Amino acid sequence: MSSRGWENVTESDIATKVKKSPRLAAQGATLPQEARSAVLPSQSSKYRNVRVVVNGERFDSQREAAYWQGLLARQAAGEITNLARQVRMPLYCPILAPDGLSIPGASIKVADYVCDYQWVDVATGQTVIADAKGKRLPMYTLKKRWLYAQNGLSILEV
To answer: For residue 49, what are the domain limits?
Structure first.
């Protein structure tokens, strides 16, 4: 009866456990190749994206995972640096005085925009923010405009 309760455990569940456990990592625990790149079983998605795990990292879509692999190759080639995923950027709203004018330097954090990728282009020295988009939802459009108005940052949609 020692196998009871293991019917629904997937390779990705084991990969997550190994990744999060310092003891298992110290012992050099690894997973077979098929567990390193697996499609996660899930209920049907509202926007028909398929969540995947590639090399132990979880992605919300196959498009996002494929673009990440391309960015890793560009970083290895030296075209880009400081590559990061899921970077949070706070969005602020100015505080208004009773007369309706904004108070200089006073603002309140209202939301966060979480970009899929951020990197620095070596050729131009500019920070690039990118998002893998299949469908542009109203909340994304609002946050994209807000980020541009607040910081002057444009989002590259891939």
So the answer is: 9-60
